[in-house]
TrEMBL record:
NCBIfam families assigned: TAT_signal_seq (TIGR01409)
Provenance organism: Dyadobacter chenwenxiniae
One Pfam family of this chain: DUF1501
The protein, known as: DUF1501 domain-containing protein
Organism classification: Bacteria, Pseudomonadati, Bacteroidota, Cytophagia, Cytophagales
Domain of life: Bacteria
InterPro entries per UniProt: Alkaline_phosphatase_core_sf, DUF1501, TAT_signal, TAT_signal_bac_arc
Length: 475
């Protein structure tokens, strides 16, 4: 079987999966044939906030530092394990990379995972691994696999009927691999009403819940009526099921209800006290964390905040890795720590699970895994003659770090271990994506055998329903 998909093949097959989902008709929405319990029962969490480090966050440069190797002109790249000094955290004997001191001070409230292992999918594409992380399914699929947030929105419903159950903050689709990213930012066969409510720029969040400038309420209502007519005359209206048509209409009705609600003020960051606003104001991601906190207060169910994936920017450190990471740490350190402290102070952290993750890690020398190397995508010299080559350049899938807080997650706990010498791969308690997803679903009270019938076969939250919660992470 050829698994060396290129980007064009991935897009073609993702588009085909979307059409297949339409042709398949509605899932059996009122039958979960093998569920043994009711979603939401025996839960330790009500809400999930995903802090997405898009682009491949190097574990050895962030939450799992190794021996610090300062830059020297014409040094061997193989000597470099970490390009930052390590600093102590609040946990005895546990260090983070320099620049993450604020997050280190709140680790007594959460769990550090140092053993995430990404999938082997042949030639590495960020969008394919991000698709896999967010849906738990390896692309391409014959149906459009739902995003984790959509599963949660569908199974648990909104906490507040006015606030969208699934909110996505920070990702634009006008940069980089736009179509590839759209492929997993969807509810798939679950229906549009469970898809993400997009806020590309949190500083303009209020614009997402009000009509465009110059459009009064009556005109907006007429547009809503026109929207319903368009649905009836669209391919979905002609070929889709009643479920799909009604789902599209309900998504618009939800947006209309939010527009006229007092809760819409949560999207207006200008009302945040200045002292608090300044802590979060490190850029778009920091303000996204602030908006996530405000929406959690108002009853959002699942919120994703991303540093945004754009090729060769952010965490995608093919060059200038060290200097780029200095900036990335500045953007995330204060806001994430403040988010945890604010949720804890308000008594929300106990029932709100916060997850920080990335699609894979990075290494100076290894592309893929030591025993499953894949094609090099960007040429990197073995001898570092310039500072721009000093950093973690290649995609590494055999080890990675995640953080989890609240919602029943253990406090002050460290899970897993990677080797201290290259290759810095997982050597204790590996955790894969189906275990991550099922741990989150378990905390939310969503049974592991939750399924819908699609194309006359069961479709589970994890492939074949085999994902198991990692109970060691839960208190």
């Amino acid at each position: 079987m050829n698994i060396q998909w290129n980007r064009r093949e991935f897009l073609q097959r993702a588009s085909a999966a979307t059409m297949a989902a339409l042709a398949a008709g509605a899932p059996v929405s009122n039958i979960l044939s093998s569920c043994k319990g009711k979603s939401g029962s025996n839960s330790s969490a009500d809400t999930v906030i995903l802090l997405w480090m898009a682009g491949g966050m190097a574990h050895t440069e962030t939450f799992d530092p190794k021996l610090y190797t300062p830059f020297e002109k014409d040094m061997e790249g193989n000597r470099v394990l970490s390009t930052f000094k390590s600093v102590p955290t609040v946990l005895d004997g546990i260090h983070f990379s320099d620049g993450l001191q604020s997050i280190g001070k709140v680790m007594d409230k959460g769990t550090l995972i140092r053993s995430y292992v990404a999938a082997d999918m042949g030639h590495i594409l960020h969008s394919r691994h991000q698709y896999h992380w967010h849906t738990c399914y390896e692309p391409p699929q014959t149906v459009a696999a739902p995003h984790m947030g959509s599963w949660i929105a569908k199974e648990l419903g909104p906490k507040n009927p006015v606030i969208p159950a699934f909110v996505d903050i920070g990702q634009r689709f006008t940069v980089g691999e736009a179509e590839e990213l759209k492929a997993f930012h969807t509810a798939g066969f679950l229906g549009n009403e469970f898809g993400p409510f997009f806020i590309p720029d949190p500083s303009q969040g209020l614009d997402s819940v009000r009509p465009p400038v110059g459009m009064d309420a009556k005109r907006f209502e007429r547009r809503n009526q026109l929207y319903n007519e368009l649905i009836n005359n669209s391919p979905v209206g002609e070929f889709g099921s009643d479920y799909q048509r009604e789902s599209l209409k309900r998504s618009m009705e939800q947006a209309y209800a939010l527009l006229n609600s007092p809760e819409s003020k949560a999207f207006d960051l200008s009302t945040e006290p200045k002292e608090s606003y300044n802590i979060y104001n490190t850029g778009k991601f920091g303000l996204g964390c602030l908006l996530a906190r405000r929406l959690t207060e108002q009853g959002a169910r699942f919120i994703s905040v991303t540093t945004e994936y754009e090729p060769f920017k952010g965490w995608d450190t093919h060059e200038n890795g060290h200097t780029r990471l200095e900036e990335m740490k500045r953007q995330i350190d204060g806001p994430i720590a403040q988010l945890i402290k604010d949720l804890d102070k308000q008594g929300l952290l106990d029932r709100t699970m916060v997850v920080l993750a990335s699609e894979f890690s990075r290494d100076m020398m290894v592309e893929g895994k030591p025993d499953a190397k894949v094609l090099e995508q960007v040429q990197q010299p073995d001898i570092l003659s310039d500072l721009k080559f000093y950093g973690m350049h290649r995609h590494f899938t055999d080890g990675g770090s995640m953080l989890m807080f609240g919602g029943g997650i253990k406090k002050g706990f460290v899970y897993g271990k990677t080797a201290d010498e290259r290759p810095c791969k997982t050597i204790e308690n590996p955790i894969k994506i189906d275990g991550v997803h099922q741990t989150i679903y378990h905390a939310l009270g969503i049974p592991e055998d939750t399924q819908y019938e699609v194309e006359k076969r069961p479709f589970y939250t994890t492939p074949d329903g085999k994902g198991k919660a990692v109970m060691d992470l839960l208190s």
